[in-house]
């Protein structure tokens, strides 16, 4: 059966038309999706105190001098298998015989507590603290919580390093720690790159204060659907509640681009742009 040139051209045109139609449809769907995200009212964080003292420390950014010291003193540190030599903070894995193999461990480029630059507020005496790290860390990370003016720390322990970049959680309830109303606290996460020279520590820090919400605010939050509570927390200056409640929603709906856009917006408002840029990735764990 012969197919003339006109028929061939007609078929080719048909394929081209269908391809263009599909492209236009996908573009329209993407545009509609972006419009839907943009149409959702973004949460706005209102700090309880304007122009407060900056106390947040971001490991890898705010502490440039210590980071350079850490690099010069052995950022690529040995993880010893089968034995520990001296003060090496290696991950110890049993090896056959008496041999010990060294494995290079690279210090992450950034670690931060997801907090505002000033002391952030929480309405919960046992808040959840979110933190971010830019890459895996196979060793322990030191966690310390101090009450300002008190010599003994409330927490001074080690937590497991994550196996990948992302957001992580520290729940103070797990440590049976309750904050006192009105008291101010400092929390720190530290990777000790050299146990014998602590000036090389890779440290992130932030401030937190427990402030009981008013009866009116508590009632307002209770009457608001969980999907919208983070808006109220952010507006009323309760940073830790806002970011935790929003992150819990993202855990349930990790593909929800609106929720992720809202968390990125809050992160950008407190100058955590690297963390906001990452937010297209995994949820907190």
Characteristic key phrases:
single chain, 285 residues, alpha+beta, Immunoglobulin-like, globular
Q: What is the structure about, briefly put?
A:
This protein has 7 helices and 10 strands. The protein is of the alpha+beta class and 285 residues long.
Write the CATH architecture name of the domain at 64-72 and 108-278.
Sandwich
Number of strands: 10
Structure classification: alpha+beta
Cα end-to-end separation: 65 Å
- At the fourth level of CATH, the homologous superfamily of the domain at 64-72 and 108-278 is Immunoglobulins
The number of helical elements comes to 7
Low-confidence residue ranges:
20-39, 65-100
Overview of this protein structure:
The chain is of the alpha+beta class and 285 residues long. It has a domain at 64-72 and 108-278: Immunoglobulins (Immunoglobulin-like, Sandwich). It has seven helices and ten strands. The N and C termini lie far apart (65 Å). The model is unreliable at 20-39 and 65-100 (pLDDT under 50).
SSE topology sketch:
Elements (H helix, E strand, L loop, with lengths): L4 H35 L24 H9 L4 E4 L21 E4 L5 E3 L6 E3 L5 E6 L6 E8 L7 E6 L5 E6 L12 E8 L10 E9 L4 H8 L6 H7 L3 H14 L4 H13 L3 H6 L7
Parallel strand pairs: 4-10
Antiparallel strand pairs: 1-2, 3-5, 5-8, 6-7, 6-9, 9-10
Helix pairs in contact: 4-5, 5-6
